[in-house]
Design a protein that fits this description.
single chain, globular, seven-stranded parallel sheet, alpha/beta, 8 helices
């Protein structure tokens, strides 16, 4: 049990990669705080974890990761109800539909950067002091191959993920003296609710085009991301910080 005795917060855990990470962490002994904007998904995931691992194994906390008060409440409730916090996974994310940059409305630009970038800043405001008091911790940001090898039609989303990668590396250096490790994962497109927006339309032709760009010949799956997240959150990765790990079937080669 690689996370036995640890407590992890996973944002955007009501579906997709976040759900996969939350469930995998619970399988490895962690108590998990499931955060999501939508209560139906978050409550479902937390209930499923409790059904499999026991009454105290999961807690759902609703909140918008782009709002300071919500992030503060998420961290405070975690510490108050779970007694500790070891790992934060900033997984919540959003995108615009695949389209020319100049057709992306300003409100969508603001929302994408608020959810994909500002949330990392807000989480650090409230998690870093907790980690400093306990002598260390782990932050894992879910970025994207979009921040390393951008696809056309997703310019604003690509930029937000590039920012997340740079922020990860800078945070890793800044917080290393506090024994706080900061890493990120860069998944290729996967079977999540955002897939149709990435492609513009979820058609067999568009899927085939996306898959053709991935040397291992398939889209990513939540378990692919969850397994990589598990390693980076575990003590096995105690000397790993500042990495942007590509989980992409060779897409970025």
């Amino acid at each position: 049990m690689r996370l036995q005795g640890k407590v992890a917060v996973v944002t955007g855990a009501g579906s997709g990669f976040g759900e996969g990470i939350a469930r995998r962490f619970a399988d490895e002994g962690a108590r998990v705080v499931v955060n999501d904007l939508k209560p139906e998904g978050g409550e479902r995931v937390a209930a499923a974890i409790r059904a499999e691992h026991g009454a105290g194994s999961a807690l759902f906390v609703q909140g918008d990761v782009s709002r300071n008060a919500d992030v503060r409440a998420l961290v405070e409730q975690t510490v108050a109800r779970m007694g500790r916090l070891d790992t934060l996974v900033n997984n919540a994310g959003t995108t615009h539909r695949n389209q020319p940059m100049l057709e992306v409305g300003e409100e969508w630009f603001d929302r994408i950067f608020a959810v994909n970038v500002k949330s990392i800043y807000l989480s650090a405001l409230h998690v870093v002091p907790v980690f400093r008091r306990r002598g260390g911790g782990s932050i894992l940001n879910i970025a994207s191959t979009a921040g390393l090898r951008p696809r056309p039609g997703l310019t604003v989303y690509n930029a937000s993920k590039g920012a997340a990668i740079t922020m990860t590396k800078s945070m890793a250096v800044e917080f290393a003296p506090d024994r706080i490790r900061v890493n990120c994962l860069c998944p290729v497109a996967g079977e999540t609710a955002l897939l149709a927006d990435f492609m513009g339309a979820d058609t067999p032709e568009n899927r085939a085009k996306f898959v053709a760009s991935i040397p291992l010949g398939r889209l990513s799956r939540p378990l692919d991301i969850a397994n990589a997240a598990l390693f980076l959150a575990s003590d096995e990765a105690e000397f790993v910080t500042g990495v942007a790990l590509e989980v992409d079937g060779g897409r970025c080669v």
